[in-house]
Protein backbone atom coordinates (compact mmCIF):
# COMPACT_ATOMS: atom_id res chain seq x y z
CA UNK A 1 0.00 0.00 0.00
CA UNK A 2 2.75 2.40 1.00
CA UNK A 3 4.70 1.49 -2.15
CA UNK A 4 1.69 2.21 -4.31
CA UNK A 5 1.17 5.68 -2.78
CA UNK A 6 4.79 6.41 -3.33
CA UNK A 7 4.53 5.29 -6.92
CA UNK A 8 1.54 7.48 -7.49
CA UNK A 9 3.28 10.50 -5.96
CA UNK A 10 6.29 9.94 -8.17
CA UNK A 11 4.23 9.57 -11.26
CA UNK A 12 2.40 12.81 -10.47
CA UNK A 13 5.70 14.54 -9.96
CA UNK A 14 7.08 13.36 -13.29
CA UNK A 15 3.93 14.35 -15.12
CA UNK A 16 4.09 17.83 -13.69
CA UNK A 17 7.73 17.99 -14.52
CA UNK A 18 7.12 16.94 -18.11
CA UNK A 19 4.42 19.51 -18.44
CA UNK A 20 6.68 22.17 -17.05
CA UNK A 21 9.43 21.37 -19.56
CA UNK A 22 7.09 21.23 -22.53
CA UNK A 23 3.44 22.13 -22.25
CA UNK A 24 1.79 21.27 -25.61
CA UNK A 25 -1.47 23.02 -24.66
CA UNK A 26 0.00 26.48 -24.13
CA UNK A 27 3.12 25.70 -26.23
CA UNK A 28 5.33 26.79 -23.34
CA UNK A 29 8.89 25.63 -22.81
CA UNK A 30 9.80 25.75 -19.12
CA UNK A 31 6.97 28.11 -18.37
CA UNK A 32 7.59 30.54 -21.20
CA UNK A 33 6.43 30.83 -24.78
CA UNK A 34 8.88 31.14 -27.64
CA UNK A 35 8.46 34.88 -27.97
CA UNK A 36 8.88 35.31 -24.25
CA UNK A 37 12.14 33.36 -24.40
CA UNK A 38 13.33 35.39 -27.38
CA UNK A 39 12.64 38.61 -25.52
CA UNK A 40 14.41 37.52 -22.39
CA UNK A 41 17.45 36.29 -24.34
CA UNK A 42 17.64 39.59 -26.21
CA UNK A 43 17.34 41.45 -22.94
CA UNK A 44 20.27 39.61 -21.39
CA UNK A 45 22.40 39.93 -24.53
CA UNK A 46 21.93 43.69 -24.50
CA UNK A 47 22.39 43.84 -20.72
CA UNK A 48 25.73 42.02 -20.80
CA UNK A 49 26.92 43.88 -23.87
CA UNK A 50 26.36 47.18 -22.08
CA UNK A 51 28.02 45.81 -18.94
CA UNK A 52 31.13 44.68 -20.84
CA UNK A 53 31.17 48.01 -22.61
CA UNK A 54 31.27 49.87 -19.32
CA UNK A 55 33.97 47.53 -17.99
CA UNK A 56 36.12 47.93 -21.10
CA UNK A 57 35.75 51.69 -20.88
CA UNK A 58 36.90 51.69 -17.24
CA UNK A 59 39.87 49.49 -18.10
CA UNK A 60 40.77 51.72 -21.02
CA UNK A 61 40.66 54.87 -18.88
CA UNK A 62 42.76 53.18 -16.18
CA UNK A 63 45.37 52.03 -18.69
CA UNK A 64 45.69 55.57 -20.01
CA UNK A 65 47.04 56.66 -16.64
CA UNK A 66 49.76 53.98 -16.54
CA UNK A 67 53.28 54.49 -17.78
CA UNK A 68 54.40 51.21 -19.31
CA UNK A 69 58.00 51.81 -18.35
CA UNK A 70 57.65 52.78 -14.76
CA UNK A 71 55.76 51.22 -11.86
CA UNK A 72 52.84 53.39 -10.80
CA UNK A 73 53.13 52.63 -7.11
CA UNK A 74 56.43 52.10 -5.36
CA UNK A 75 56.33 52.19 -1.63
CA UNK A 76 58.80 49.58 -0.49
CA UNK A 77 61.70 48.97 -2.75
CA UNK A 78 63.28 52.39 -2.88
CA UNK A 79 66.18 51.11 -0.83
CA UNK A 80 67.82 48.35 -2.83
CA UNK A 81 68.74 45.07 -1.18
CA UNK A 82 71.83 42.98 -1.77
CA UNK A 83 71.94 39.32 -2.73
CA UNK A 84 74.65 36.79 -3.36
CA UNK A 85 75.31 34.26 -6.08
CA UNK A 86 75.37 31.26 -5.87
CA UNK A 87 71.74 31.64 -4.94
CA UNK A 88 71.39 29.34 -1.94
CA UNK A 89 68.31 29.51 0.24
CA UNK A 90 70.15 28.95 3.51
CA UNK A 91 72.83 31.54 2.72
CA UNK A 92 75.32 29.02 4.03
CA UNK A 93 78.34 27.97 1.99
CA UNK A 94 80.16 24.96 3.40
CA UNK A 95 82.75 23.07 1.43
CA UNK A 96 86.05 21.23 1.59
CA UNK A 97 88.68 20.08 -0.90
CA UNK A 98 86.35 17.56 -2.52
CA UNK A 99 84.57 18.73 -5.63
CA UNK A 100 81.31 17.08 -4.61
CA UNK A 101 81.00 19.61 -1.77
CA UNK A 102 81.41 22.69 -3.94
CA UNK A 103 80.14 21.69 -7.37
CA UNK A 104 76.70 23.15 -6.55
CA UNK A 105 78.23 26.56 -5.80
CA UNK A 106 80.24 26.51 -9.00
CA UNK A 107 77.09 25.61 -10.93
CA UNK A 108 75.25 28.47 -9.21
CA UNK A 109 77.89 31.00 -10.22
CA UNK A 110 78.04 29.56 -13.72
CA UNK A 111 74.33 30.10 -14.22
CA UNK A 112 74.47 33.61 -12.71
CA UNK A 113 77.13 34.54 -15.23
CA UNK A 114 75.33 33.21 -18.27
CA UNK A 115 75.18 35.97 -20.83
CA UNK A 116 78.17 37.78 -19.35
CA UNK A 117 80.59 36.51 -21.97
CA UNK A 118 82.24 38.97 -24.29
CA UNK A 119 80.30 37.96 -27.39
CA UNK A 120 76.84 38.26 -25.85
CA UNK A 121 77.69 41.53 -24.15
CA UNK A 122 78.97 43.02 -27.39
CA UNK A 123 75.70 42.05 -29.05
CA UNK A 124 73.51 43.47 -26.35
CA UNK A 125 75.31 46.45 -24.94
CA UNK A 126 77.62 49.30 -25.74
CA UNK A 127 81.13 49.80 -24.43
CA UNK A 128 80.70 52.65 -21.97
CA UNK A 129 84.05 54.37 -21.64
CA UNK A 130 82.69 57.20 -19.50
CA UNK A 131 82.58 57.29 -15.71
CA UNK A 132 79.24 58.84 -14.92
CA UNK A 133 75.54 58.00 -14.74
CA UNK A 134 74.20 56.75 -18.06
CA UNK A 135 71.12 58.94 -18.27
CA UNK A 136 69.05 58.46 -21.39
CA UNK A 137 66.35 61.02 -20.90
CA UNK A 138 65.62 61.35 -24.59
CA UNK A 139 62.52 59.37 -25.46
CA UNK A 140 64.51 56.75 -27.29
CA UNK A 141 63.30 53.31 -26.49
CA UNK A 142 64.70 50.75 -26.15
CA UNK A 143 67.41 52.34 -24.05
CA UNK A 144 70.96 51.18 -24.46
CA UNK A 145 72.85 49.22 -21.85
CA UNK A 146 76.47 49.26 -20.73
CA UNK A 147 78.39 46.03 -21.16
CA UNK A 148 79.47 44.07 -18.13
CA UNK A 149 81.76 41.27 -19.25
CA UNK A 150 82.87 38.52 -16.93
CA UNK A 151 86.57 39.30 -17.34
CA UNK A 152 85.91 42.29 -15.04
CA UNK A 153 85.62 39.70 -12.27
CA UNK A 154 89.34 38.87 -12.48
CA UNK A 155 90.23 35.58 -10.87
CA UNK A 156 86.52 35.12 -10.04
CA UNK A 157 85.61 35.33 -13.73
CA UNK A 158 85.77 31.58 -14.27
CA UNK A 159 87.97 32.19 -17.32
CA UNK A 160 91.20 30.89 -15.83
CA UNK A 161 89.85 28.97 -12.84
CA UNK A 162 86.61 27.23 -13.69
CA UNK A 163 86.08 26.35 -10.01
CA UNK A 164 85.97 30.05 -9.01
CA UNK A 165 88.63 29.35 -6.39
CA UNK A 166 86.69 26.62 -4.59
CA UNK A 167 89.14 23.88 -5.66
CA UNK A 168 91.98 25.50 -3.72
CA UNK A 169 90.05 26.89 -0.78
CA UNK A 170 89.81 30.49 -1.99
CA UNK A 171 86.10 30.75 -2.79
CA UNK A 172 84.50 33.54 -4.78
CA UNK A 173 81.05 34.91 -3.96
CA UNK A 174 79.23 37.28 -6.27
CA UNK A 175 77.29 40.20 -4.84
CA UNK A 176 74.61 42.07 -6.68
CA UNK A 177 72.41 44.97 -5.82
CA UNK A 178 68.75 44.44 -6.66
CA UNK A 179 67.37 46.56 -9.44
CA UNK A 180 65.23 49.53 -8.57
CA UNK A 181 63.80 51.35 -11.56
CA UNK A 182 65.12 54.92 -11.89
CA UNK A 183 67.18 54.67 -8.73
CA UNK A 184 70.28 56.87 -8.72
CA UNK A 185 72.80 55.75 -6.10
CA UNK A 186 74.87 58.62 -4.71
CA UNK A 187 78.61 58.34 -4.22
CA UNK A 188 80.57 58.84 -1.02
CA UNK A 189 83.50 60.98 -2.21
CA UNK A 190 85.93 59.58 0.36
CA UNK A 191 85.66 56.14 -1.23
CA UNK A 192 85.22 56.71 -4.94
CA UNK A 193 83.95 59.45 -7.20
CA UNK A 194 82.93 57.20 -10.07
CA UNK A 195 81.33 54.24 -8.33
CA UNK A 196 79.55 53.04 -5.25
CA UNK A 197 81.55 50.57 -3.24
CA UNK A 198 81.07 47.22 -1.53
CA UNK A 199 82.88 45.91 1.51
CA UNK A 200 82.64 42.60 3.32
CA UNK A 201 83.53 42.07 6.94
CA UNK A 202 83.02 39.38 9.56
CA UNK A 203 82.41 39.48 13.28
CA UNK A 204 85.90 38.18 13.75
CA UNK A 205 87.50 39.89 10.81
CA UNK A 206 91.05 38.60 11.34
CA UNK A 207 89.94 34.98 11.08
CA UNK A 208 88.17 35.72 7.80
CA UNK A 209 91.58 36.49 6.36
CA UNK A 210 92.46 38.72 3.46
CA UNK A 211 90.01 39.20 0.63
CA UNK A 212 90.00 40.88 -2.75
CA UNK A 213 87.20 42.43 -4.79
CA UNK A 214 86.60 42.47 -8.54
CA UNK A 215 86.17 45.05 -9.93
CA UNK A 216 87.72 47.21 -7.24
CA UNK A 217 88.48 50.83 -6.48
CA UNK A 218 92.00 52.17 -6.03
CA UNK A 219 91.50 51.63 -2.28
CA UNK A 220 90.70 47.99 -2.84
CA UNK A 221 86.95 48.10 -2.16
CA UNK A 222 84.44 46.39 -4.41
CA UNK A 223 83.16 48.77 -7.04
CA UNK A 224 79.93 49.22 -9.01
CA UNK A 225 80.33 51.90 -11.65
CA UNK A 226 77.78 54.69 -11.86
CA UNK A 227 77.33 53.99 -15.58
CA UNK A 228 75.02 51.09 -14.73
CA UNK A 229 72.49 53.57 -13.31
CA UNK A 230 69.76 54.49 -13.67
CA UNK A 231 68.02 51.30 -14.72
CA UNK A 232 64.98 52.08 -16.84
CA UNK A 233 63.03 48.87 -16.30
CA UNK A 234 62.74 45.67 -18.27
CA UNK A 235 60.46 47.06 -20.91
CA UNK A 236 62.35 50.23 -21.70
CA UNK A 237 65.79 48.68 -21.32
CA UNK A 238 65.53 44.97 -22.11
CA UNK A 239 69.27 44.55 -22.65
CA UNK A 240 70.30 45.84 -19.22
CA UNK A 241 73.05 43.77 -17.64
CA UNK A 242 73.25 43.79 -13.91
CA UNK A 243 76.76 44.46 -12.59
CA UNK A 244 78.34 42.15 -10.04
CA UNK A 245 81.06 42.54 -7.48
CA UNK A 246 83.02 39.38 -6.78
CA UNK A 247 84.70 38.93 -3.43
CA UNK A 248 87.35 36.26 -3.09
CA UNK A 249 88.42 34.99 0.31
CA UNK A 250 92.12 34.20 0.09
CA UNK A 251 93.07 32.96 3.53
CA UNK A 252 90.02 31.54 5.31
CA UNK A 253 90.61 30.10 8.74
CA UNK A 254 89.39 26.55 8.40
CA UNK A 255 86.64 24.75 10.31
CA UNK A 256 84.82 27.75 11.70
CA UNK A 257 81.61 29.44 10.60
CA UNK A 258 82.48 32.88 9.31
CA UNK A 259 79.51 35.22 9.60
CA UNK A 260 80.21 37.42 6.62
CA UNK A 261 78.37 40.69 6.12
CA UNK A 262 78.71 42.61 2.88
CA UNK A 263 77.30 46.09 2.58
CA UNK A 264 77.12 48.80 -0.02
CA UNK A 265 78.56 52.25 0.62
CA UNK A 266 76.37 54.86 -1.03
CA UNK A 267 75.19 58.15 0.37
CA UNK A 268 71.50 57.34 -0.15
CA UNK A 269 71.30 53.64 0.71
CA UNK A 270 70.43 52.61 4.23
CA UNK A 271 72.41 49.63 5.50
CA UNK A 272 71.43 49.52 9.15
CA UNK A 273 67.70 48.78 9.10
CA UNK A 274 67.21 46.43 12.05
CA UNK A 275 63.94 45.03 10.70
CA UNK A 276 65.25 44.18 7.25
CA UNK A 277 68.74 42.78 7.18
CA UNK A 278 68.86 42.70 3.39
CA UNK A 279 68.51 46.46 2.94
CA UNK A 280 71.80 47.55 1.48
CA UNK A 281 73.55 44.52 2.88
CA UNK A 282 73.62 40.76 2.84
CA UNK A 283 74.82 38.26 5.43
CA UNK A 284 75.93 34.72 4.76
CA UNK A 285 77.88 31.99 6.45
CA UNK A 286 81.06 30.59 5.02
CA UNK A 287 82.95 27.53 6.20
CA UNK A 288 85.97 25.88 4.67
CA UNK A 289 86.41 22.46 6.22
CA UNK A 290 89.68 20.63 6.29
C1 LIG B 1 84.92 15.36 -9.19
O1 LIG B 1 86.15 15.14 -9.88
C2 LIG B 1 86.26 13.84 -10.42
C3 LIG B 1 87.64 13.68 -10.99
O2 LIG B 1 88.16 14.89 -11.46
C4 LIG B 1 85.18 13.64 -11.47
O3 LIG B 1 85.24 12.35 -12.00
C5 LIG B 1 83.81 13.85 -10.82
O4 LIG B 1 82.78 13.78 -11.79
C6 LIG B 1 83.73 15.20 -10.13
N1 LIG B 1 82.51 15.29 -9.38
C7 LIG B 1 81.64 16.28 -9.54
C8 LIG B 1 80.43 16.27 -8.66
O5 LIG B 1 81.83 17.16 -10.36
C1 LIG C 1 69.59 44.43 -27.56
O1 LIG C 1 70.25 43.23 -27.91
C2 LIG C 1 69.95 42.75 -29.20
C3 LIG C 1 70.71 41.46 -29.41
O2 LIG C 1 70.41 40.56 -28.38
C4 LIG C 1 70.36 43.79 -30.24
O3 LIG C 1 70.01 43.34 -31.52
C5 LIG C 1 69.69 45.11 -29.94
O4 LIG C 1 70.16 46.11 -30.84
C6 LIG C 1 69.98 45.55 -28.53
N1 LIG C 1 69.23 46.75 -28.23
C7 LIG C 1 69.81 47.87 -27.82
C8 LIG C 1 68.93 49.02 -27.54
O5 LIG C 1 71.02 47.97 -27.64
C1 LIG D 1 67.87 64.15 -27.85
O1 LIG D 1 67.84 63.78 -29.22
C2 LIG D 1 68.00 64.87 -30.12
C3 LIG D 1 67.93 64.35 -31.53
O2 LIG D 1 67.30 63.13 -31.60
C4 LIG D 1 69.33 65.55 -29.88
O3 LIG D 1 69.45 66.66 -30.72
C5 LIG D 1 69.43 65.98 -28.43
O4 LIG D 1 70.73 66.50 -28.17
C6 LIG D 1 69.19 64.80 -27.51
N1 LIG D 1 69.17 65.27 -26.13
C7 LIG D 1 69.88 64.69 -25.20
C8 LIG D 1 69.74 65.24 -23.81
O5 LIG D 1 70.62 63.74 -25.41
C1 LIG E 1 94.19 34.42 -17.09
O1 LIG E 1 95.51 33.95 -17.17
C2 LIG E 1 96.30 34.61 -18.13
C3 LIG E 1 97.67 33.93 -18.20
O2 LIG E 1 97.99 33.35 -17.00
C4 LIG E 1 96.44 36.08 -17.73
O3 LIG E 1 97.20 36.77 -18.69
C5 LIG E 1 95.04 36.68 -17.66
O4 LIG E 1 95.14 38.02 -17.20
C6 LIG E 1 94.19 35.89 -16.73
N1 LIG E 1 92.82 36.40 -16.81
C7 LIG E 1 92.12 36.72 -15.76
C8 LIG E 1 90.76 37.24 -16.01
O5 LIG E 1 92.55 36.59 -14.64
C1 LIG F 1 86.69 62.72 -5.18
O1 LIG F 1 86.72 64.08 -5.60
C2 LIG F 1 87.13 64.98 -4.58
C3 LIG F 1 87.00 66.38 -5.11
O2 LIG F 1 87.08 66.42 -6.48
C4 LIG F 1 88.55 64.65 -4.16
O3 LIG F 1 88.96 65.54 -3.11
C5 LIG F 1 88.60 63.23 -3.65
O4 LIG F 1 89.94 62.86 -3.35
C6 LIG F 1 88.06 62.26 -4.72
N1 LIG F 1 87.97 60.95 -4.13
C7 LIG F 1 88.57 59.90 -4.63
C8 LIG F 1 88.40 58.61 -3.91
O5 LIG F 1 89.26 59.96 -5.63
C1 LIG G 1 85.95 47.45 4.93
O1 LIG G 1 86.23 46.34 5.74
C2 LIG G 1 87.49 46.41 6.38
C3 LIG G 1 87.66 45.13 7.12
O2 LIG G 1 87.90 44.12 6.22
C4 LIG G 1 87.53 47.58 7.32
O3 LIG G 1 88.81 47.67 7.91
C5 LIG G 1 87.26 48.84 6.52
O4 LIG G 1 87.17 49.95 7.37
C6 LIG G 1 85.96 48.70 5.75
N1 LIG G 1 85.82 49.84 4.90
C7 LIG G 1 84.68 50.52 4.84
C8 LIG G 1 84.67 51.60 3.87
O5 LIG G 1 83.72 50.25 5.53
C1 LIG H 1 96.69 33.65 6.64
O1 LIG H 1 96.17 33.80 7.95
C2 LIG H 1 97.01 33.41 8.99
C3 LIG H 1 96.30 33.62 10.30
O2 LIG H 1 94.95 33.30 10.21
C4 LIG H 1 98.29 34.22 8.95
O3 LIG H 1 99.18 33.74 9.94
C5 LIG H 1 98.95 34.09 7.60
O4 LIG H 1 100.07 34.97 7.51
C6 LIG H 1 97.96 34.46 6.51
N1 LIG H 1 98.56 34.24 5.21
C7 LIG H 1 98.57 35.16 4.26
C8 LIG H 1 99.20 34.76 2.98
O5 LIG H 1 98.05 36.25 4.41
UniProtKB/TrEMBL annotation:
<feature type="transmembrane region" description="Helical">
    <location>
        <begin position="37"/>
        <end position="63"/>
    </location>
</feature>
<keyword id="KW-1133">Transmembrane helix</keyword>
<keyword id="KW-0472">Membrane</keyword>
<keyword id="KW-0915">Sodium</keyword>
<keyword id="KW-0735">Signal-anchor</keyword>
<keyword id="KW-1003">Cell membrane</keyword>
<dbReference type="InterPro" id="IPR000402">
    <property type="entry name" value="Na/K_ATPase_sub_beta"/>
</dbReference>
<protein>
    <recommendedName>
        <fullName>Sodium/potassium-transporting ATPase subunit beta</fullName>
    </recommendedName>
</protein>
<keyword id="KW-1015">Disulfide bond</keyword>
<dbReference type="InterPro" id="IPR038702">
    <property type="entry name" value="Na/K_ATPase_sub_beta_sf"/>
</dbReference>
<comment type="similarity">
    <text>Belongs to the X(+)/potassium ATPases subunit beta family.</text>
</comment>
<keyword id="KW-0813">Transport</keyword>
<keyword id="KW-0740">Sodium/potassium transport</keyword>
<keyword id="KW-0812">Transmembrane</keyword>
<dbReference type="Pfam" id="PF00287">
    <property type="entry name" value="Na_K-ATPase"/>
</dbReference>
<keyword id="KW-0630">Potassium</keyword>
<keyword id="KW-0406">Ion transport</keyword>
<keyword id="KW-0633">Potassium transport</keyword>
<keyword id="KW-0325">Glycoprotein</keyword>
<comment type="function">
    <text>This is the non-catalytic component of the active enzyme, which catalyzes the hydrolysis of ATP coupled with the exchange of Na(+) and K(+) ions across the plasma membrane.</text>
</comment>
<keyword id="KW-0739">Sodium transport</keyword>
